[in-house]
Amino acid sequence: MRLKGYVFLWLGLSMILFYEGLMLGQNPTEGIFGYLKSHFSYFKNLNLSPEPGRAISLYYGWVGFALILTTNLYVFRKRMGILKNLGRVPNWLNFHIFCGLLGPTFIVFHCNFTVRGLVSISFWSMIIVAVSGIIGRYFYIQVTKVRADLNRDAIECEKTLEGYEKSIGPKIPAHAWRDAKYQALQLAGGHWLSEEGVNPMFITALFASMMGDIRLKFTSPSLALGMPDSARGILERFALAKRQAYFYEIFNRYLGYWHSFHMPFAFFMYIIAAIHVAAALLLGVSR
After folding, report:
1. Does position 127 have pLDDT exceeding 90, yes or no?
2. Are residues 135 and 272 in the same domain?
């Protein structure tokens, strides 16, 4: 499944959890757990309180923790030889992000939006890991292709545009094609390419790339009168390839920094979460 599908699935499940949370606080018998209690003998004695330490909180916690553990399948897929041919890495990454979003969502409802004591370290580490994971995914997309391939894509697009220019002839002046390419670069956030000696900082590159991607979601490169409409897609591919090649070293370097930031928080999260789960099992949880 593509990431967009996973995001919509996460939003839908989050809305269901939010609805159930409202029902548990206002009219428990109308919610999902109320239905389970009234129709299934296993849930007959279920305490419908959403407070931490109660049965519903326990269910949310186990599901959330299981989903967070499931995110490690992506790590195993990348590092274990026996799994290297099992599915495509981008698909595993999308599933990894989905579990990394849905797991913390269940944990938020598990603690009923209240975080105290030692477990708060695990909770905020989890939030940092989830947020930084979204940022890391963006870094990863920027360096999926090596710079040589990006430059090759840009050259191929330029050759296609030159073919258009030659086939149309003098009806469209040469400067119109140059202007179209420059405007496409501006739209995609790569306008620094025309300024010699400019070496943008990381924050500038990140902001330009993200704003360029957002603009390209809602608009397409402009064309001069007489240019074929198929040139829009070529201009967009050209501008994206040029921008990603230009910022490649920046994103590749900071992707390494991101790993150094992301992993320690994940480690703290698992250690404190394991202590929390062990304490809950040893001390017992009210149903």
Report:
1. no
2. yes
Contact predicate 117/68, CB 8 Å: no
Determine the Cα–Cα distance for residues 142 and 89; give it in Å rounded to an integer: 15
How many CB atoms within 10 Å of residue 12? Answer: 10
- The answer to whether position 256 is within a domain reads no
**pTM across the whole model:** 0.73
Both tokens assigned to 267: 């480690």
102 and 185 belong to one structural domain:
no
Same-domain status, 14 and 138: yes
Whose tokens are 């050759």? That residue is: 159
207: tokens are 């902001």
AA letter at 173: P
Q: Does pLDDT of 223 surpass 80?
A: yes
pLDDT, tens digit (0-9, with 9 covering 90-100), for 101-113: 899 899 888 888 8
Tokens standing for 116? Answer: 């105290």
What is the residue range of 34's domain? Answer: 3-144+264-283
Beta carbons within 10 angstroms of residue 274's beta carbon: 12
Cβ-contact 226, 146 below 8 angstroms: no
- Could you tell me how far CA 119 lies from the centroid of its own chain? 25
Per-residue pLDDT tens over the stretch 235-246: 999 999 988 988
**How many CB atoms are closer than 10 A to CB 278?**
10
One domain, residues 134 and 162: no
Question: Structurally, how many domains does the chain consist of?
Answer: 2
